[in-house]
Amino acid sequence: MDSIISIKGLSKTYNSGFQALKTVDLEINRGEILALLGPNGAGKTTLISTICGIISPSSGTVSVDGFDIIKDFRKTRAMIGLVPQELTLGAFDTVWSTVRFSRGLFGSKRDDAYLEQLLKDLSLFDKKDSEIRALSGGMKRRVLIAKALSHQPKVLFLDEPTAGVDVELRKDMWKIVNKLRNQGVTIILTTHYIEEAEEIAERVGVISNGELLLVEKKDELMQSLGKKQLLIDLKEPVKEIPSSLEEYNIELNEDGTQISYTYVVKDETADVSEILNKITNSGLLLKDLKVEQSSLEDIFVDLVKEES
Amino acid sequence: MNLTAIKVIYFNEMMRFWKTLFQSVASPVISTALYFVVFGSAIGSRIENIEGVTYGLFIVPGLTMLSVLTQSISNASFGIFFPKFTGTIYELLSAPVSFYETLIGYVGAAATKSMILATIILATANLFVDLNIAHPFWMLGFLVLTCIAFSLFGFIIGLWADNFEKLQIIPLLIITPLVFLGGSFYSISMLPDLWQKVTLFNPVLYLVSGFRWSFFEVSDVSVGISLFMVFLFLAICIAIIAWMFRTGYKLKQ
Question: For an engineered disulfide with B72, which of A5, B137, B151, B192 has Cβ 3.0 to 4.6 Å away?
Fold first, then answer.
């Protein structure tokens, strides 16, 4: 795969002594949507802030499209758009002036037609002469996105894009993300909402305590780490699990009405039919059964737990 | 060089000036007029000419410097402090813009505002006294250099300050007293010997003195020294800013 961002041995220790990133290596593919998952304070924002040039790395290198982020900062930064986590905007600027300011700041020639279309796509055009302070939180978020896209970046970073965002904006945002993806823009988003990653990302990276625990295709991650749980409701409650089932990872709920069998999908030793056989042979009467698949969230929680 | 970025930073800053145009113009006009009513007419008529210059005329350069110094500092410091305060600085830091381009944009705009202000003050003064400028070229030179030097100084304060109190404290506690005690409204020859010597340590004295010389060919210290001091101050500010740039001082970790 052709990589657009290449991170090698990147670490960051703040002046306070806090080590936010411990030797991160990551290749981000051209045109992909990558979700960086991690709890608060895991180092997600530090990682993207470093790539964008807001924070200087303590060691390691980052290159964007082959250019070093420090030596060739003009080239790399011009390729990147960043939507920050906080709603940081000048209160007295108008939507139009702030978007035009961003475009100019990134060294792009004035292009009112493009900006007009951009504001229309973000349902901001009728607010273009409003001052930022008069806008709602959701609208401000849209303005931040417009600013980040004002110079037509090749790579877009979205830092916690849906924090405090309503359903409609969320949908709009994913629409825009998809559109950008189709245009070949690489999108990296950080989130601690798993559904978000599950919904739109192609690859998922999990960060915890400044370390990148893994980066995998979402489907593969679900497959390799995804667990399934077979839940069996019993007609009559039992006091304990029959001895023939003790060798399996089986649990009985408190009132003895439900047996659960947890297994890893990929695990060859898991044999559902054998277990079902043994259950019927032991004389238990089944009332109902269902299978639940673990979500990315469960996978994530497990990973982070293991880590700590 | 990202010229487009310098341009947008400059014009964005100037926009703030135009948005508050009335305030920007009215306050210097009113305060200049008040100084002239009080010092020029009411009290000034009882003060003897100073080295052949009437008191009303004598205070014009000092009055201009007072406003230029305080306004340069406040405009430039506020300009860079505000993005830090609101967090919009992230955009400057992530843009393909060097520190010096940012500096040119902000300091250029602050210095321009001060120049406009100085022009308004001199025009207002001209309504009260008959202003004849002996060396217009030198007058302009002193003015431009002072505007730039003190806008740089303001930029440094804006970077250094991490709250509003720090932002105000230097202009209020250091600059204003230095201007008042730096011979803006009197000639230091009117002071006792000891205080004359003490005043020589006040850098503002050299600015006011040189500026006044360009109007009336009257000065407390020689023009050469004045010019040297302006450049020295300019060099010190540039050196501090270069150091800030190298270390990413308070902007970047």
Answer: B151
Residues in B closer than 8 angstroms to A52, CB to CB, are 93-94
What does pTM read for this prediction? 0.83
Do the domain assignments include residue A300?
Answer: no
What percent of chain B shows pLDDT beyond 70?
Answer: 100
DSSP state for residue B173 in the 8-state scheme: I
Give yes or no: residues A134 and A243 share one domain: no
What is the spatial distance between Cα A53 and Cα A213, in angstroms, rounded to a whole number?
24
> Does any CB of chain B come closer than 8 Å to the CB of residue A92?
yes
Residue B110 pLDDT > 90: yes
Q: In this structure, are A213 and A232 located in the same domain?
A: no
Domain count, chain A: 2
Within-domain flag for A301: no
Write down which residue in A222, A240, A270 finishes a domain. A222
> Is the per-residue pLDDT at A216 higher than 90?
no
State the Cα–Cα distance between residues B78 and B85, nearest whole angstrom: 10
Residue-wise DSSP of B79-91: HHHHHHHHSTHHH
Residues 13 through 52 of chain A touching chain B, CB cutoff 8 Å: 14-15, 52
CB within 8 Å: A147 and B252: no
Candidates A83, A86, A105, A143, partner chain B, best to mutate (most B CBs within 10 A): A105
A14: closest chain B residue by CA: B253
A109 interfacial to chain B (CB closer than 8 Å): yes
To test the contact with chain A by mutation, choose from B88, B89, B98 the residue with the greatest count of A C-beta atoms within 10 A, namely B88
- Could you give the CA distance from residue A304 to residue A194 in angstroms, rounded to a whole number? 13
Q: Which residue of B has its CA nearest to A157?
A: B94
pLDDT of B27-79, one tens digit each?
A: 878 888 888 888 777 777 777 778 778 888 888 888 888 888 988 998 899 88
Q: Is B95–A101 a contact, with Cβ atoms under 8 angstroms apart?
A: no
A71: domain CATH number? 3.40.50.300
Do A37 and A107 lie in a common domain? yes
pLDDT tens for A290-300 read 888 777 777 77
Helices (DSSP H) in chain B: which residue ranges?
Answer: 3-19, 21-35, 55-86, 89-94, 99-128, 136-160, 164-170, 176-181, 193-199, 203-216, 223-247
Task: Please give the Cα distance from B207 to A305 (Å, whole number).
Answer: 66
CB contact under 8 A, A73 and B95: no
Q: Could you tell me the CATH number of the domain that includes residue A254?
A: 3.30.70.1560
Question: How many other β-carbons are positioned within 10 Å of the β-carbon of residue B179?
Answer: 25
How many CB pairs below 8 A link A and B?
73
pLDDT tens, residue by residue, A122-141: 888 999 899 989 988 888 98
Interchain proximity B248–A56, CB inside 8 Å: yes
